[in-house]
Structures are given as C-alpha cells and as structure tokens.
Amino acid sequence: MACQPHPQGDFLTVRSQNLRSIYAMLFAVAMFSLMDSALKLLSFHYPALQVTALRALSSLPLVCLYVAWRGAYKTVLKVRWSLHLLRCALGISMISLFAYALKLLSLAEAYSIFFIAPTLITALSVFILKERVDAARWCAIAVGMGGVLVVLRPEAGNFLSLGGLAVLAAAACYAVSAIVGRVLSRTDSSESMILWLMLMMAIVGVALSAPAWVAIRAEDWWVLAGLALSGFLGQLGITEAFRNGKASSVAPFEYSALAWGVGLDWLLWHTLPDRYTLLGAAIIIASGVYLIRREAVHVESEHP
To answer: Rounded to an integer, what distance in angstroms lies between the CA atom of residue 39 and that of residue 32?
Structure first.
C-alpha cells in the first residue's frame, strides 16, 4: 500500500515556507529603506541623474560577483535587447525622479505615494497583458488613487507638489517596468535581468550626468558603500521572499516600509508625517492589500 502525504504535514510545510518568505520580505524592506536613506543623503549634494548613476555603479561589482557565483554567464547572454533597453530607461527615470523627490519630501511621504505602484501594476496589466480585472478590483484601484490625492494634500497651497508628482511618476515608471519584467521573465533569466539593468543604468547614467558631474566628497564614500550593500541584500531578500512563499501572504509586508520611513525620518532628520500622510497611506495600503488578496482568490479559482 503506497504511502499518502499527510494533509497536516503539507500544511505545516507551506506554513513554514510562508513564514520564511515573510521574514525575507521584512528583511528586504529594511534593506531597501536603508538604501533609500542613502539616496536621500546623496540627493542633497549631487544631481538626481548622478545619484542614479552612483546607485548602479556601486551595485554593479556585487551583481557581477553574484552572477559568477550562480554560474549564470551563459544565460545572461540570451536576452531580448529591446525590452532590456526599455527597462533601463524606466529604471533611470524612476530612480532619478525618486531621488529628486527625496530632496523635497520625507521618506514617509515618498513611501506613502509610492505605495500606489501595485495598484498601477494591476491597472496596467489590463491594457498591456490583457488580463481581466473585475469591478471590485477597479473600485479598489479608484480608492487607492483617492489615497494618493489625500497624501498630495487637498489644501490649495500644497496640492500637487513637485515632490509628490515626482514620486507618482516614479511609481508609474516602476509599474511599467514590473510589467515589462513579467514579459521578460518568460524568456530571460533573473540573473540577466538584474545584470543588464545595472550595467545599462551605470553606462547611460554616467553618460547623461557627465556634463554636470560633481566630485564625490570623501565623507560620502561610506554612504556609497552602504547604498551598494543594502541594495544588493534587499534584492536577494525580495527574490527569496517570492521564490517559495505565497504572494498574497508575502506581498502585504512590503508596506512595512512605512514604519521604517517614519523611524528613519525621526532618527536622521527629526521629522514626523502629518495626518494627511498617515490617512492617505492607510487608504492606499488597504487598497493594495485588498487587490493582492483578491488576485490570490482569482488565481486559485481559475487554477485550483
């Protein structure tokens, strides 16, 4: 008589994988928050395009070592160049806009607006990937956009600030890049996607920022080292989080970035978010979590 897998054992295995993935996501969010703090520190002294170039240049050696450790040199040569170039343009635009916004906004404010990115991904997937989105999810998308308006301030004097618009544009670039990444992942390895993105961003970023390049100050080298290490570890963490964990269980923990933003704002710049930021963030987070849960139910109903 063949042994049958025990349902409780399967449940415990899945639960263990989800917990491990949640811990990996929390670690990744912490690393990315430290990376963004480094970007904010650099943005006060260097042009936004140069900050983008420094982000890519500082991470490139670690990415190359990772590709070598994975033995993925053969796979990184099989690429769809047009889509990689598009991701490069989107990546440069996203980081440059975000770095510019960080000069004007606190981390908590920037994160609150950037949280709309998953909602934008859901909306864009309808037009680009031809995915179906039901009425309930469209309502959640509308609610999330309303949350962004709250963060951007309904007061006449502060409505649609340059910093807020820059973060919103950065979130749109991220959303389109995520859609392009979905298409690329069908044919290209994850190592090639990471390597070529960093390499292209470094080359193009240096070329674009060269005319206004500012010499690196001696006291900023430790910030660059922290930027490289936190960005690299964050990428490894988020890859591990989605490798085995259930997306609907793991993805909501990305919103823990708001807690890191508030804490780092207070620790480094002695600022705290106002009531509009917290209210808008709560609306956007609720909308995003609903979309993630709804997507999980939709997928499981079609592919039980």
So the answer is: 10
pTM for the structure as a whole: 0.87
> What CA–CA distance (Å, rounded) separates 223 from 227?
6
Q: Which two tokens stand for residue 210?
A: 């060269």
pLDDT band, residue 294 (cuts 50/70/90): confident
What is the per-residue DSSP string for the chain?
-PPPPPHHHHHHHHHHHHHHHHHHHHHHHHHHHHHHHHHHHHHTTS-HHHHHHHHHHHHHHHHHHHHHHHT-TTGGGS--HHHHHHHHHHHHHHHHHHHHHHHHS-HHHHHHHHTTHHHHHHHHHHHHS-----HHHHHHHHHHHHHHHHHT-SSTTTTT-HHHHHHHHHHHHHHHHHHHHHHHTTTS-HHHHHHHHHHHHHHHHHHHHGGG--PPPGGGHHHHHHHHHHHHHHHHHHHHHHHHS-HHHHGGGGGGHHHHHHHHIIIII-----HHHHHHHHHHHHHHHHHHHHHHHHHHHH--
Instruction: Choose between 253 and 159: higher pLDDT.
Output: 253
Is the separation of the CB atoms in 114 and 167 below 8 Å? yes
- Sign of the dihedral defined by the CA atoms of residues 66, 250, 201, 105, in that order: negative
Statement: residue 7 has pLDDT above 60: no
Angle at 26 between CA 286 and CA 299, to 5 degrees: 55
State how far the Cα of 147 lies from the Cα of 141, in Å rounded to an integer. 10
Instruction: For residues 224 and 228, give the distance between their C-alpha atoms in angstroms, rounded to a whole number.
Output: 6
